Structures are given as C-alpha cells and as structure tokens.
C-alpha cells in the first residue's frame, strides 16, 4: 500500500514538473490570436490582426528573413566543418591530440555566452565584421558546431568500421568509401546536427545583441528590443511562429538521431563530463 | 564518467593498431589524414572563439592602461561586489531549486516504462531547444502584475505580488530554463545504478525509504555534483532572463558587463569581470573534479 502511495506521489511530482517545463511557454499561442492591444491572458476575443501586423511591418519581416538566411548558412557551414571534425576525431590514432582537439571543439558550450559576446564584439569591430552577414554566420557557427560534433560522433559510434575496411579491400579510395559507405550510414546524425545548428543560430540572442547593426537585426534581437520598448501582441505572434518552427525542426532532429532522445540526452550530459575532465 | 565521455574519445582498438601501421611504410605519409579533417574546424574556433576570448582576458590587464586597475575598480566599490555576491546567491538558489525539482523527476525516469521514459525525456529536451527569448517572453506575460500567476494568487486570497523585476521572477524563469542541465546528468548517473542493490538492502531488512536514502542516494551523488555544477556555472553567465525579468537596480554580473562594454565602451572593465567570472567557473570545475575523485577513491576503498 505504502509503495503504491509512494509511486503515486512520485508520478504527481513528475507530472507537475513536466507541466511546469512545457505549459508556461504555450501561453504565447493563444495570446498571439487576441483581438486586444494588451497582453492579457486569457484573451477575450480572437483575431489574426497581429500576424497581419507582423507581416506588414518591414522591421519584423526583415528580421525573420535575416534569421532564416543566417540560420541556413550556419547549418551548412557548421555541419560541413563539424562532420569533418567528428569523423577525423574518431579516426585519429593520436589519443592525446584527439582529446585536446575535442576539448577545444566543445569549449564554446562551456564558456559563458557573455564572455564570448564581448570578445567577438571587440574583434569584429576591429575587422569591420560587426553587423555583417559574414560576422553573424562566423559567430553563430562557433556556437553551433559543438552540437554537430556531438551528434555526428554519436552516430559514428554505432557505425561498424569494418564496412570501411571491406570497401577499401574492394578497391574503393578513401573519399569514395566515405561518400558511398560512411556518409549514408551516419546521415541521421549529420541531418540532426544540421537541424540543431540551424536552431542554435535561429535562437541566439546574446552575441547577436552585441554584433547587430541597424541594417542587420535577427528575429530574437528584434524581439528583445521590442520587449524592452513596448508590450505589443505582435511579439506573441513572432514568438508563436518561432515556437512552431523550432519545435518541428527539433522534433525532427530528435527523431532522426539514432535511438532518438536517449543518445542526444547522453550527449548533453557529456557537457557535464567535459567540465570535469577539463579541470 | 568514462562512459559519458566515450562518444568523443577515439575508438578503442585504434591506438593498438597504430604501431602495425607504422611498419607498413607506404602509408606513413598519410597516417595523420584524420587530423587534416579537424583542421578547418579548429581554425574557425581559434579565430572566432579562442582569440576573442583570450583578447578579452588580456584587455582586463591592458585597457585603458597596463596594470590591475580594472580589478581595483571592480573590487574597490561595494556596489560592484554586491553585484558579484548577488550573482552567486542567485546561482546558488537556482541550483538548489533545480535539484529539488529535478531529483524526483530523474528518479521517475529511471523507474518508468520505456515509453513513459521517452516521453519524460522529450519533455525535458524540447524546452532545452525552445527559444530562450520565447520562453522568457512567456514568463514576462505570466508574471506581470495583472498576469495569470497573480490572478491565481488572487483567487487564493493572496494579494498581488510583484514578480516581474524581482529576484523571485528571475529565479522562476531561470530554474525552468536550467532544468535540463540538472535532469540529464542526474538521469544518466541514476540509470547506471544497479537497482538490485535496493532489493538486496530490503532483503536485509531495510525499509524501502531507508534503502533509497542509504543506498540509492549516495550512488547518485556524482550526478548531483555534475548537474549542480552545470546549473551553477550556466546561471553565473545568464544574460537574457535576468535582463528581462529582473530589476535593473539588482543587476547580475552579465548585465553589468553588458552596460560597461556596450553602453560605456569600458572594455577593460568588461574584461576584468570576464576574468572574475571565468576564474569562478574554473574554480568550481576544479572543486567538482576533486570531489568526484575523492568520492571515487572512497568508494574504491570501501570495496
């Protein structure tokens, strides 16, 4: 009896925590369809005027276009570099070198964002990269690459290296082996890495706040400055669209990653282990 | 911990195979080809990560004039030291609250059926990837004086409480956002604990709760240490949530850094605070490393 009671208590606590993790964010969805000018919840009437407002305002649409462009470029660059690095890391026989390289590859996850933001801002100001597309892509690539490395490494771990030996014994060169044997088999890890890279860039606020310029503002930066200025339900419309887009992409990424969430979950606790090892 | 790290450590048998390859001769020149694949990523990291961060640290000692003037400025004013103390106490509270909420959740994940476990894991992972800006905005709406939380408190007969622009508001937002950093390390350690030990303890006469407290909890401590360090370190450098949910008069160190650098262009002062923040981070990692090693040794000794 008491065991059943304990189990019920445990489940109650778990469900409450789960609700608290998910529910508060969902409040932006009904809010975006309010017909009032204020952000009162729950809304009393419904309309789509705030979406019309979003797409009618060039500040919002430009920010959305910038975020999509930067995100796609970051996904391409970070996935290419990160996949190559993860593959090299898994085949490098120099254990100490590989350990040092993997510490550097994952380090951007550990250093507080504000420190990196100040540093990048200073360097970019000097190089004239602040507020440029190249600058945004470079900064976001650094933040996104660790997620690609982690995701690709996880799928390389389940890959049977003997397949490469077999391909080589049949006369395939190293590149042909990679293209035709390895890459197709680690594709889920590569694609989920690309999705995470896009989302990392699409959500990034702190570094972007520093390197923004009046001509290049990303969606989270536009949201940040609107929040501090006014409370307009257009914000809720923007938030809803970001929420839906990132949830779809991340849901896809998590499902794609081999053994879905477990693998990625472990990869994230790897950050914790990293910190210990780094000492 | 070794198991956690394995995804990035080089594959096991490879080093053993290396000497044989050395003898092969014909392949000697191309033996380091994997390294060449890492080079482009490393170059980008050196240019856009390592160099800027190093530059920030150096500026603390060189800008505007060489010396430790920036540190003297920072530690010389009680208001600045108060920012530092506030940052640490907020991080400590966030860690404690996260632990209290995450421990039962992670434990539930280890005893739930595989399907329920996947659902619980997804619930932790999805917010991890949900835009920080969107979540902070949602909290801003919920916590405002006329918001849902205050409406609910009103129903209970508790007058409106100011939550936005207070430390309480910052904590509520931060804890929700930091939860995955606590749940995931906890879960990965807890799932490795042999549950038959609990059965064994009970068969020797321990009541279930006693068995849990004396057998399971001590074995889960490495997860607690890893999760707590993660949450604590991450909250030390948090910017967006405290900036939007907190009060400008009760700034945390990251907000202070932002105003010094972005608003006043005091690069050296920003750099000095970056050094302090980073030193605190490294110190915590070091302490955790020592604690983990000591724990492992005492467990090995017990065996």
TrEMBL record, chain A:
Name recorded for this polypeptide: Polyamine ABC transporter permease
Membrane-topology annotation of the record: Multi-pass membrane protein
Lineage of origin: Bacteria, Bacillati, Actinomycetota, Actinomycetes, Streptosporangiales
Family per similarity comment: Belongs to the binding-protein-dependent transport system permease family.
Residues of the ABC transmembrane type-1 domain: 64-254
UniProt keyword Manganese present: no
Annotated transmembrane regions: 58-87, 99-124, 130-156, 177-199, 235-258
Subcellular location: Cell inner membrane; Cell membrane
InterPro entries: MetI-like, MetI-like_sf
Keywords: Cell inner membrane, Cell membrane, Membrane, Transmembrane, Transmembrane helix, Transport
Xref: PROSITE patterns: ABC_TM1
Pfam families named among the record's database cross-references: BPD_transp_1
Main localisation: membrane
UniProtKB/TrEMBL annotation, chain B:
Pfam families the UniProt entry points to: BPD_transp_1 (PF00528)
This protein's record includes keyword Lipid metabolism: no
Organism: Microbispora siamensis
Topological relation to the membrane, as annotated: Multi-pass membrane protein
Region span, Disordered: 1-27
Protein's name in the database: ABC transporter permease
ABC transmembrane type-1 domain: residues covered: 84-288
Main location: membrane
Residue ranges crossing the lipid bilayer per the database entry: 35-54, 90-108, 120-142, 168-190, 211-240, 271-291
């Amino acid at each position: 009896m008491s065991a059943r009671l304990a189990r019920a208590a445990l489940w109650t606590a778990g469900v409450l925590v789960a609700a608290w993790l998910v529910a508060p964010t969902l409040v932006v969805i009904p809010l975006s369809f309010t017909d009032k000018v204020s952000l009162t919840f729950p809304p009393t009437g419904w309309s789509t005027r705030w979406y019309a407002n979003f797409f009618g305002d060039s500040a919002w649409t430009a920010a959305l276009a910038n975020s999509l462009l930067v995100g796609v470029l970051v996904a391409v660059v970070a996935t290419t570099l990160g996949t190559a690095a993860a593959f090299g890391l898994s085949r490098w026989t120099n254990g100490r070198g590989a350990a040092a390289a993997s510490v550097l590859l994952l380090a951007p996850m550990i250093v507080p964002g504000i420190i990196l933001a100040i540093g990048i801002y200073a360097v970019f100001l000097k190089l004239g990269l602040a507020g440029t597309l190249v600058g945004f892509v470079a900064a976001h690539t650094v933040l996104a690459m660790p997620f690609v490395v982690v995701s690709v490494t996880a799928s390389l771990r389940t890959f049977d290296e003997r397949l490469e030996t077999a391909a080589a014994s049949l006369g395939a060169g190293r590149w042909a082996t990679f293209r035709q044997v390895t890459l197709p088999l680690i594709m889920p890890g590569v694609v989920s890495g690309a999705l995470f890279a896009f989302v990392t860039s699409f959500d990034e606020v702190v570094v972007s706040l520093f390197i923004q310029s009046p001509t290049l503002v990303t969606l989270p930066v536009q949201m940040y400055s609107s929040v501090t200025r006014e409370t307009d339900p257009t914000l809720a419309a923007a938030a809803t669209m970001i929420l839906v887009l990132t949830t779809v992409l991340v849901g896809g990424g998590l499902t794609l990653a081999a053994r879905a969430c477990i693998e990625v979950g472990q990869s994230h606790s790897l950050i914790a282990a990293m910190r210990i090892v780094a000492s | 911990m070794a198991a956690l790290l394995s995804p990035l450590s080089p594959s096991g048998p490879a080093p053993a195979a290396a000497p044989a390859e050395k003898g092969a001769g014909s392949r000697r020149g191309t033996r380091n080809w994997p390294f060449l694949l890492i080079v482009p990523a490393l170059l980008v990291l050196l240019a856009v990560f390592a160099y800027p961060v190093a530059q920030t640290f150096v500026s603390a000692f060189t800008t505007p004039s060489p010396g430790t003037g920036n540190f003297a400025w920072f530690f010389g004013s009680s208001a600045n030291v108060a920012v530092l103390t506030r940052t640490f106490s907020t991080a400590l509270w966030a860690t404690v609250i996260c632990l209290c909420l995450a421990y039962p959740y992670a434990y539930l994940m280890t005893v739930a059926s595989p399907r329920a476990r996947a659902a619980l894991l997804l619930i932790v992972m999805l917010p991890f990837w949900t835009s920080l800006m969107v979540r902070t905005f949602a909290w801003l709406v919920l916590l405002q004086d006329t918001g849902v939380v205050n409406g609910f408190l009103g129903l209970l007969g508790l007058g409106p409480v100011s939550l936005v622009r207070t430390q309480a508001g910052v904590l509520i937002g931060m804890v929700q956002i930091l939860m995955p950093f606590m749940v995931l390390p906890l879960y990965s350690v807890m799932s490795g604990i042999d549950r038959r030990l609990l059965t064994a303890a009970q068969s020797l006469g321990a009541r279930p709760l006693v068995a849990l407290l004396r057998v399971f909890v001590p074995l889960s401590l490495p997860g607690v240490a890893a999760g707590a360090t993660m949450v604590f370190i991450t909250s030390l450098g948090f910017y967006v949530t405290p900036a939007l949910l907190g009060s400008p008069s009760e700034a945390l160190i990251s907000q202070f850094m932002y105003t010094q650098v972005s608003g006043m262009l005091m690069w050296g002062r920003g750099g000095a605070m970056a050094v302090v923040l980073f030193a605190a981070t490294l110190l915590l990692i070091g302490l955790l490393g020592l604690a983990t090693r000591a724990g492992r040794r005492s467990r090995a000794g017990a065996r």
